[in-house]
Amino acid sequence: MLQTTITCFQFCIFRGSVRTVKGDYATILTFLLLLVLLELYPLVALFTEPDLASKLLQHRMTIWLLALMWHGLAVLMIFALLKLKNMVSLFRGTLAAYFGVFVLFQLMGVLLQFIGLETLPSGIRTLLLLVWFSWSCCVFGYVFGSALSIKFYLGVIVALLVNVVSYVLAFVVIGSIVSKELLEIFLQHVRS
Questions:
Q1: Inter-helix orientation angle 50-57/180-191, to 10°
Q2: Which of 14, 55, 155, 192 could cross-link to 141 by cystine, CB 3.0-4.6 Å?
Q3: Residue-number span of the structural domain to which 175 is assigned
Q4: What is Dmax (Cα atoms) for the chain?
Q5: Do 70 and 164 contact (CB within 8 A), yes or no?
Q6: What is the full per-residue pLDDT of the chain (192 aa) written as tens digits?
């Protein structure tokens, strides 16, 4: 797991290859569980009103279910893409790299929230978030480019499509289960 984590750090500076990642199931499962657990904090931190944040925490199981479904659908899409390219042998390494990089960027997002972005001017705060988001898109593109042996810009497009499509599908499925109270919490936040 340590070697995979180091490789994920290398991906963040656009070094390494999916072919060198030792994707054992324990590492993949650990990264996935960390990722699902980390989904809750950035979401709750968006709600500055304590009342709305505590109401949101009451629905944490739904949020975790949404995250599990989102990443589960991403796994299926990654498998399908590798199958199309006849590169299924890279599946575990790709998953380990994908989830490992995702965990690193989630941790960076949590760190950005801890350093008190609210105290910064809105322009600097927006710039930091834009750099963080752009960098993460590029790193995911690098991972997919390495896994699928495609050009970098195509890797970025594939990474965006995999994440957006899997999230939207998960939200549609979970949305039919989500309570009206949870939807009202999000609507209250959007209105304020």
A1: 150
A2: 155
A3: 2-191
A4: 51
A5: no
A6: 777 778 888 888 888 888 888 888 888 888 888 877 777 665 555 555 666 556 666 666 677 777 788 888 999 999 999 999 999 999 999 999 998 898 888 888 777 777 766 676 777 777 887 888 899 999 999 999 999 999 999 999 999 999 999 988 887 777 666 656 666 666 665 565
| pTM for this model (two decimals) | 0.79
Sign of CA dihedral 17, 18, 22, 27: positive
The total number of structural domains in the chain stands at: 1
Q: Which two tokens stand for residue 102?
A: 């995702």
Angle at 187 between CA 186 and CA 192, to 5 degrees: 100
